[in-house]
Amino acid sequence: MLRYRRRFRVRRLRKSGWLLLAVAIAYMLFRIWGPTAGSPGRNRVPAVVDRSERFCTVEKVLDGDSVVCANGNTVRYAGIDTPEPLHLYAERARATNRRWVYRRTIRLRVVDVDRYGRLVAFVYRTDWPPPSINERLLSEGLAWVYYFPSVRRYWSRLVRIQRDAMRARRGIWRVLSRRPERLIGNRRSRRFHTERCGYVVQIAPAHRVVFLSRWDAFWAGYAPARECAQPVGE
Q1: Which pLDDT value is given to residue 19?
Q2: Which of 1, 47, 131, 141 has fewest C-beta within 10 Å?
Q3: Run of H or E including 133
Q4: Is residue 23 classed exposed, middle or buried when 0-12, 13-18 and 19+ CB atoms within 10 A define those classes?
Q5: In this structure, what are the phi and psi dihedrals at residue 60, rounded to the nearest 5 degrees?
């Protein structure tokens, strides 16, 4: 009887070991091949971003901050965002971007690949010296800074350029409302929400910051959250 119990325990331990091994292998395979959280399964983001310098010819300008290259790559400008269609200055931002890069060869300094498979990059015209197109749009007041961890090292410079444009009241900063308005920012994402936005309750108290106007929020380098984004102008 004792020998039988020992054999049973050994078999049970072996089964548990194989089960744990199978779970570990399945988890590893999911991390490698599974879809990125929050993105469609067909748009897998590589674990390692190729940050080598690239060149492409712009075939299509989608809006103020994204273009399509002749090789099929879509490029999203890093560290900035421009007004959405039908919002004030959206068409001007797109037209300016088109005038600067359409059918021209651009140099890309890729910093990330987003969940849609787009290259997130600082973009330079090969016949222009720095700064980047990203920074030029900020300087013209046609974009605002848009934080992601991949642009952390460039963040201070981008905010400084935006503040210079705000002081000069260029572009969108000419029409940005300064009326009192309570907004809730998230220190981690550096996005701000309207006070009644349903996503505010998801922000941990330690990460909340209160702004008393949109001007104050933009001045701090925060951007409108897309879940409850507000037009820049009234």
Answers
A1: 54
A2: 1
A3: helix 133-139
A4: exposed
A5: -150, 140
Q: What pLDDT is recorded for position 198? A: 87
pLDDT greater than 90 at residue 123: yes
Q: Apex CA 119: angle with CA 157 and CA 191, to 5°? A: 50
pLDDT digits (tens, 9 = 90+) for 48-86: 567 667 999 999 999 999 999 999 999 999 999 999 888
DSSP state of 192: E
Task: Enter the DSSP assignment of 228.
Answer: G
Domain 54-171 has CATH 2.40.50.90: yes
Residue 162 vs residues 91, 144, 166, 200: alpha-carbon distances, Å: 19, 7, 6, 26
What's the token pair of residue 157? 């410079």
Report CA torsion sign: 52, 57, 60, 65.
positive
pLDDT digits (tens, 9 = 90+) for 3-34: 545 554 545 545 555 655 554 555 444 343 44
CA distance 52 to 43: 21
Question: Quick check: bond before 83 cis, omega within 30?
Answer: no
Amino acid residing at 156:
S
Output the pLDDT for position 227.
76
- Taking alpha carbons only, the member of 177, 206, 175 closest to residue 194 is 177
| Three-state secondary structure call for residue 145 | strand
